[in-house]
Amino acid sequence: MKSTPTTTKYETAFEEDVAKGLTSFPKYLLSKYIYDEKGDKLFQQIMNMPEYYLTNCELGILQSHTASIADSFNSKKGFDLIELGAGDGKKTKVLLKHLVAKNYDFDYLPVDISQHVLDELEEALKTEIPGVNIKTQQGTYFKTLEKLADYNSRKKVIMVLGSNIGNLLHEKAIDFLKNICEAMSKEDMLFMGFDQKKDPQIILDAYNDPHGITEAFNKNLLVRMNNELEADFNTDDFKHWETYNPETGTAASYLVSKKEQQVKIDKLGLDIHFDAWETIHTEISQKYDDNIVQWLAKEAGLEVIEEFSDSENCYKNYIFRRKDL
Ligand code: AVI
Fold it and tell me: How many domains is the chain built from?
């Protein structure tokens, strides 16, 4: 049965994106919508799972290369450390502790869409690392970057941890890097984490844990549609499925309909038909190697000037500069 939206006017981007994604073929949903309050909590749990090696790998890199990383951040007039997507700051605190202990002259500007996340981070830093001069920035990455482009009295270090770039297709990742590049001056740098290609089984296990946490995280898209769009998805009728293509380095998440079914999304006036075993593509988590990272950098007008990794090259944090200045 054909399913077309009965209305073209949507109140929110979520409504519009859901209507577009579920009336396309093949069906898809955007992974950014996983992150409501429950999705944030599930992602915290994912980061604490042994299978989700990314967090510990990056934490290990920050712990074992703290002094060199801090040194590369520094300049004569000190620096402003701008972190995009600050979260709970667990990994960043390793750097902040060192920077404060060694009396570096810096301000810390965490950027997050959620004021609640920023308030909690500020509160935690007050007691855990009181020497940090924190200036929280609430807003989207792009809006904040535009604003911070004029922040030029001293060196800017833009930091993006967690391999967040991996949730973007290459084309979008280049746009993201270009936006950052445009906000950078000659002396500024970008410090960014990229999960690396590795044994495909390790990657599959990270996104297909036996505890069912990643499954609940993926299915939170269905739960959100039920809660916010008056939909009647039965989460048990969908299977969480993960694939990894070792050639392209792309891990992809799907929700697969276990049977032929009809789902109503009342708020959008939609009746969505699923064939048995039809898919909804929900997320990509791209894995990289040096060649891909250098190519992305070049396309965006950046160049890699240094890299830090763990002993098994499981994960890398690269430092980039603008190439054209
Ligand atoms: C936030 N992002 C980098 C995570 C990732 O690894 O793609 C989200 C995630 N999805 C499933 N597990 C974790």
Answer: 2
Residues 161, 34 share a domain: no
224 occurs within a structural domain:
yes
Residue 5 has pLDDT above 70, yes or no: no
68: nearest Cα among 108, 98, 103, 110: 98
The model's pTM is 0.94
> Residue 7: inside a domain, yes or no?
no
Average pLDDT, integer, range 100-118: 93
Decide: residue 172, CB within 10 A, 0-12 exposed, 13-18 middle, 19+ buried.
exposed
Domain that residue 302 falls in: 53-198+288-322
For residue 167, give the ligand 1 atom closest to its CA.
Answer: 7
How many CB atoms are located within 10 Å of the residue 61 CB? 24
Nearest to 91 by CA among 160, 176, 184: 160
Query: Residue 6: inside a domain, yes or no?
Result: no
Q: Which amino acid is at 280?
A: I
Residue 134 lies in a domain: yes
**Ligand 1 pocket, residue 164 CB under 6 Å:** yes
Binding site membership of 285 for ligand 1 (Cβ less than 6 Å): yes
Residues 68 and 176 in one domain: yes
Mutate which of 32, 46, 202 for ligand 1 pocket (most atoms within 8 A of beta carbon): 46
pLDDT value at 295 more than 50 = yes
